[in-house]
Amino acid sequence: MTSLHSADVEASVGLCLHQPRRRVPMEPFWQRFITGAEEALAARGHRLLMKVVASLDDEVRVHARWHEEARVRGVIVADLTPADPRLDSLSQLGLPAVALARAEDAPGFSTFTDDNVEIVDRVVAHFAERGHRHLARVTGPAMYVHTQLRDEAFARACEALRIRHERVEADFTSDGGAAATRELLARADAPSGILFDNDVMALAGLEVCRELEQAVPERMAIVAWDDSVALQLASPTVTALAHDLTRYGRGATELLLDTIADGRVRTGRAEPPRLVVREST
């Protein structure tokens, strides 16, 4: 199996991520997604080439270099943005790809995603059942399509239930989650529940609540978009969405391999996550 840290090994499929380098090793989403991707590749005798870069433009250049050097036969594209330059570049290169997005956000490409709207609806309904009338979302970067979809779904779900709502943008990291939580708790009329866009930020928010003596869940309820062992072991334990991320990575990769094999554009849908209710709500 190809080392994820070796950039000079022949590989069949590439995964290039534009994000803070400190985010990848600490975020269970990518750990488990990559495990699934490697399982799918190994089953067909292929390997994974992975690289972390600082920007979208860097990712475009990496894709072009991989293609020029014939190092990959296709790539997985994550964290799509509106009018994403990677898609135009991949089209010009003729390099097959699967985008972790809706079909309408990546026309002409195979796509694999989950239903962000249905997931948000379930979480907001859970908060409402527990009597919350003012909620917030601590989000990933607003430039991402999936952040925008979740924002829109969150606003619609809250408004349908006449729940006040707000958002604070962060960056999926512990520091970002902590800063966003402090900002919300410093407001004169703070929300009573927060949905965090990943487990890392939720854990940081929980720690800030502890530092500021804001009891969870009595004063502040917390839900994380991704589940992890850390959330299960936290005190209090944290309510979370349990995605099968290994299966997610496997499914997206198998879809890409099928697209590489025959050139046909496909769409795939991840299994919906379970809402695992714990002490934080």
Automatic annotation (TrEMBL):
Electron transport listed as a keyword: no
SUPFAM superfamilies (UniProt xref): Periplasmic binding protein-like I
Source organism, top-level taxon: Bacteria
InterPro entries: LacI/GalR-like_sensor, Peripla_BP_I
Gene Ontology terms for molecular function: DNA-binding transcription factor activity; transcription cis-regulatory region binding
Domain Transcriptional regulator LacI/GalR-like sensor: 124-281
Keyword annotations of the record: DNA-binding, Transcription, Transcription regulation
Protein name: LacI family transcriptional regulator
